[in-house]
């Protein structure tokens, strides 16, 4: 018998790994100093932050001076978009982002629109891939910012960021990528990608919550959004989150060390889940790329005809399986997923989606148990649905 | 977000299904909003002797359907018309604010089913 509860929501957050928790502890109680203090306590803390900065910079192939610690993905996204828009407002007013960005980007773009910036959206295809030809047709001399996720949080699509960066740079625009779901999961070389800015987060890769980073290419003009003291080379005020940064680095280091091993393991779980679900559950659609190599190794997202996502979520919850409907960030809202609508799904199907995101501690037994429970939850809910009627074994669409 | 009573009602809803040759059927909501509720009634001498539901929607929509159908069984149609969404919420011990609309759907589905009953009777 499989042990419950089972956690299949790693795209929402992950447990802090032992190594990270252990590393942090010393900087909470022992070496507690403020890195900006000049005395020994401060110097010790600064040394730890420097080591973390050097280590993460090495993993993503940038200079330590190009890495800025933040409170996480949302702040990094806000800073990148707002900071560039404000720094370049005299050069141009045109911002281009993908329609499947995180709310941190969409809400910031909306706020900038009110300030007089013009926001356009890239087109994405049915699997969530950015249409590069369309992007080429909408960039112009007025474009200052082009931003797209490296990998989508809901459907797992891995975007052609290198090509997007080339298109952005062809008109002199700044290129940004949100790598919150990708950093520590996919091998990333910022110089090879060619982006000017990249967001990262700690808690998606078995590090603590409340800490992340923004890569800012040396020499790029950007305004601060959090003004205060001289922290982060005067670009981001606020007392340095030493323990968080130490924990972030330790988690990132482990994730990078085990990257291939984890990817192979987790994608095998994913593929087993997808294969069984598609074979055994009727009227189900896999959202996002069919080609597993172009999809986040941990992601499986499905839409179910005739039933609604939240009722599936709670049915699985009652069976001890934690998943998310749409993305965790949008739950509680009544709107169907903006990501699925952008992929061209009709509203009813966009309401009926569930995201499974697997982790390195999950097992094949858990996968099989979850597919079995999903099967019975879906058929129970369909029996309750007025849209679903089985007549002589044939479904009648009413 | 949901209290235990809502979760328990969602886990074991009562009156799931459709009444054959129902005396009144009411369907409200639409798929693009994420909720469709259908209530069917068996009525004898203006008394609701049976009520069943079929619902496409969230856990709250299913729980309110179950509770609403349970409440009106045994009521006269006049009494059932007076059932409000507030009473459904109270019976469930409360609903999160963004789920209040589910209870409104339940009230509307009952009213529509009774309208259908009157229409059929007068036809």
Whole-number tally of structural domains of chain A: 2
- Coarse structural class of chain A: alpha/beta
Which CATH architecture of the largest domain in chain A? Answer: 3-Layer(aba) Sandwich
Which spans of chain A of ≥5 residues are poorly predicted at pLDDT below 50?
327-331
Total domain units of chain B: 1
Average pLDDT, all residues of chain B: 95
Describe the biggest sheet of chain A? 7 strands, mixed
Measured between the Cα atoms of the first and last residue of chain B, the distance is 45 Å
The biggest sheet of chain B amounts to: 3 strands, antiparallel
Describe the structure.
The complex is a heterodimer of chains A (398) and B (123). The longest helix of chain A has 22 residues, at 259-280. In chain A, strand 3 (94-97), helix 4 and strand 4 form a beta-alpha-beta unit. In chain A, helix 1 runs antiparallel to helix 8, helix 2 runs parallel beside helix 8 and helix 3 (73-87) packs parallel to helix 4 (103-114). Chain A is an alpha/beta fold and 398 residues long. Chain A has 2 domains: 6-14 and 259-397, Aspartate Aminotransferase, domain 1 (Alpha-Beta Complex); 18-257, Aspartate Aminotransferase, domain 2. Chain A contains 13 helices and 14 strands. Chain B has 123 residues and is α+β, with helices and mostly antiparallel strands. Chain B has one domain (4-122): Sufe protein. Chain: A, CATH 3.90.1010. Chain B is 46% helix and 22% strand. Chain B has helices at residues 4-11, 59-72, 77-81, 85-91, 100-122, and strands at residues 24-30, 35-44, 47-56. A 3-stranded antiparallel β-sheet of chain B has the order 1-2-3. In chain B, helix 2 (59-72) crosses helix 5 (100-122). Chain B is globular and about 45 Å long. The mean pLDDT of chain B is 95. The chains are: A alpha/beta (398), B alpha+beta (123). The A-B interface holds A 306-308, 310-311, 314, 318, 332-334, 336, 346-348, 351, 383-387 and B 1-2, 7, 10-11, 13, 16, 27, 31-38, 53-59, 61-62, 98, 101.
């Amino acid at each position: 018998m499989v042990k419950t509860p089972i956690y299949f929501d790693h795209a929402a957050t992950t447990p802090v790994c032992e190594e990270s928790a252990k590393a942090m502890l010393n900087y909470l109680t022992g070496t507690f100093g403020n890195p900006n203090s000049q005395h020994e306590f401060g110097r010790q803390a600064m040394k730890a932050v420097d080591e973390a900065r050097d280590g993460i910079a090495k993993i993503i192939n940038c200079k330590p001076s190009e890495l800025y610690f933040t409170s996480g993905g949302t702040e990094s996204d806000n800073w990148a978009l707002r900071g560039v828009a404000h720094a370049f407002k005299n050069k141009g007013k045109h911002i281009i982002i993908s329609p499947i960005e995180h709310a941190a980007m969409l809400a910031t773009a909306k706020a900038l629109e009110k300030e007089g910036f013009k926001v356009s959206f890239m087109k994405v295809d049915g699997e969530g891939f950015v249409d590069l030809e369309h992007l080429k047709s909408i960039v112009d001399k007025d474009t200052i910012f082009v931003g797209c996720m490296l990998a989508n949080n809901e459907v797992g699509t891995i975007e052609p960021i290198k090509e997007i960066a080339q298109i952005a740079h062809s008109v002199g625009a700044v290129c940004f990528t949100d790598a919150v779901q990708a950093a520590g999961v996919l091998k990333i070389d910022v110089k090879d990608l060619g982006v000017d800015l990249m967001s990262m987060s700690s808690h998606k890769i078995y590090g603590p919550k409340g800490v992340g980073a923004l890569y800012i290419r040396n020499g790029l003009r950007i305004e601060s959004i959090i003004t205060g003291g001289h922290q982060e080379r005067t670009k981001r005020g606020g007392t340095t989150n030493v323990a968080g940064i130490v924990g972030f680095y330790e988690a990132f280091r482990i994730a990078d060390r085990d990257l291939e091993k984890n990817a192979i393991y987790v994608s095998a779980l994913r593929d087993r889940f997808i294969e069984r679900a598609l074979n055994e559950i009727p009227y189900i659609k896999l959202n996002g790329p069919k080609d597993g190599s172009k999809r986040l190794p941990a992601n499986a997202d499905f839409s179910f005809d005739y039933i609604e996502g939240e009722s599936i979520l709670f049915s699985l919850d009652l069976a001890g399986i934690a998943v998310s409907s749409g993305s965790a960030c949008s739950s509680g809202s009544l709107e169907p997923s903006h990501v699925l609508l952008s992929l061209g799904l009709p509203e009813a199907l966009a309401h009926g989606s569930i995201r499974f995101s697997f982790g390195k501690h999950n097992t094949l037994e858990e996968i099989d148990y979850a597919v079995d429970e999903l099967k019975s939850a879906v058929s129970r809910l369909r029996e309750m649905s007025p849209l679903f009627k089985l007549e002589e074994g044939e479904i009648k669409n009413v | 977000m949901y209290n235990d009573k809502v979760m328990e009602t969602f886990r074991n809803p009562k009156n799931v299904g459709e009444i054959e040759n129902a005396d009144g059927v009411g369907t409200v909501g639409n798929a693009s909003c994420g909720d469709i509720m259908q209530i069917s009634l068996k009525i004898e001498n203006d008394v609701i002797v049976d009520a069943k539901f079929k619902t496409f929607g969230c856990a709250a929509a299913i729980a309110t359907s179950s509770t609403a159908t349970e409440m009106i069984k045994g009521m006269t149609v006049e009494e059932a018309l007076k059932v409000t969404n507030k009473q459904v919420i109270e019976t469930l011990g409360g609903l999160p604010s963004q789920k209040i609309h589910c209870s409104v759907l339940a009230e509307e589905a009952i009213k529509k089913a009774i309208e259908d009953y009157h229409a059929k009777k007068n036809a």
